Amino acid sequence: MQEFGKVFVCYVQGRRESPWSMVVLNMTQEAAPSSQPRDLTVVPVEGNPTTVNLNWQPPRQPNGAITGQ
Question: Polar residues bias located where (predicted)?
């Protein structure tokens, strides 16, 4: 079963908050996993204060083979 998802972000620091980003649509080939990704870390991109990289480990209970990252 294919699942469709939307992703959008907003940056919050103290009382400051950015506007929400544009919505990005995503389609998966599997149903949602029964547990969340693990060890999420946010890494700032040096020289670009508006960009970060998100890193995470796969969920402990995936719903199938993870074929991409």
Answer: 48-69
